[in-house]
From TrEMBL:
Annotated region described as Disordered, given as residue ranges: 237-259
Reactions this protein catalyses: N-acetyl-L-glutamate + ATP = N-acetyl-L-glutamyl 5-phosphate + ADP
Gene3D superfamilies cross-referenced by the UniProt entry: Acetylglutamate kinase-like
Biological process (GO), any one: L-arginine biosynthetic process
Aspartate/glutamate/uridylate kinase domain ranges (all copies): 4-230
Enzyme class: transferase
Naturally occurring in which organism (per UniProt): Exiguobacterium aurantiacum
Protein name (Swiss-Prot/TrEMBL): acetylglutamate kinase
One Pfam match: AA_kinase
Gene name of the encoded protein: argB
Gene Ontology CC: one annotated term: cytoplasm
One MF term in the entry's GO annotations: acetylglutamate kinase activity
Pathway listed: Amino-acid biosynthesis; L-arginine biosynthesis; N(2)-acetyl-L-ornithine from L-glutamate: step 2/4
Length: 259
């Protein structure tokens, strides 16, 4: 039976992604499984804006997507970066197709006007993705949404979760630039949702890791069976799997009850 996996490839890790991931993905597809990739590109977009002397604007601490930034997002995310990913997959004998949420009206967004051309995913039409995976293609999707007044920029993690849940994926993976989630100085192989919540409250999980762990939890809430964060520089590493259950374990494989 085919297994459906959605992978969110972080923009911060793409330039240093270990080549063994392409081997893994090729073997996954050749085994008859389905693979859907979604990618970010924040660092590339920031570099573009700096080169174009586009000054960042913020509203209540959140970045505003101006018209100039949106042009950059479409050029960098749906253009330059997506082409690189699709080409790299092709060079590894993985047939891939680049898409954005605008293609086939796949991702419809609700505009968050206070942040400019930014949107939240409102509806997902999976028919185009289903057509591609049925014919053994790997869709490579970037987080540009279709909005009432035009294209919208969207948080890459949120977009990936929405697609994974709409597809009822078996696996949801986030590939980042860290080995996993660290609690009390130790990277965990598994972590319960409750333990994750406590670690956020205590400050052990902080900064950019908070939205990533919450994205994993949201995927589980949306019906995805397995949610895991992995190290883009080490595909052999276990990473951290978020679980709904009552037990967790560290990289030493010692099981401990969570309280």
């Amino acid at each position: 039976m085919s297994v459906r996996k959605v992978v969110k490839l972080g923009g911060s890790v793409w330039d240093t992604l270990h080549p063994d991931y392409f081997v893994e993905w090729k073997e996954w597809v050749e085994a008859g499984n389905e693979l859907i990739l979604l990618h970010g590109g924040g660092p590339r977009l920031s570099a573009y804006c700096e080169a174009q002397q586009i000054k960042p604007a913020f509203q209540n601490g959140r970045r505003v997507t101006t018209a100039d930034v949106l042009i950059g997002a479409t050029r960098v995310l749906a253009g330059e970066m997506q082409t690189e990913i699709v080409m790299a997959l092709g060079q590894s004998d993985v047939n891939a197709v680049g898409l954005s949420g605008v293609d086939g009206q796949m991702l419809i967004g609700r505009e968050m006007t206070e942040l400019g051309a930014v949107g939240e995913v409102e509806t997902v039409d999976v028919s185009l993705i289903e057509l591609l995976v049925k014919n053994r293609y790997v869709p490579v999707v970037t987080s540009i949404l279709s909005g009432i007044n035009g294209a919208l920029n969207c948080n890459g993690d949120d977009c990936a979760v929405a697609v994974a849940c709409a597809l009822q994926a078996d696996h949801f993976e986030m590939i980042t630039d860290v080995p996993g989630i660290r609690i009390e100085g130790t990277f965990r192989e598994t972590l319960t949702v409750d333990a994750m919540r406590r670690a956020i409250e205590s400050g052990e999980i902080y900064g950019g890791m908070i939205p990533k762990t919450e994205a994993l939890r949201s995927a589980l809430d949306g019906g995805v069976a397995l949610a895991i964060i992995r190290d883009g520089n080490d595909p052999a590493a276990t990473g951290t799997q978020i679980k709904e259950g009552h037990y967790e374990r560290t990289t030493s494989h010692i099981w401990t009850a969570s309280h």
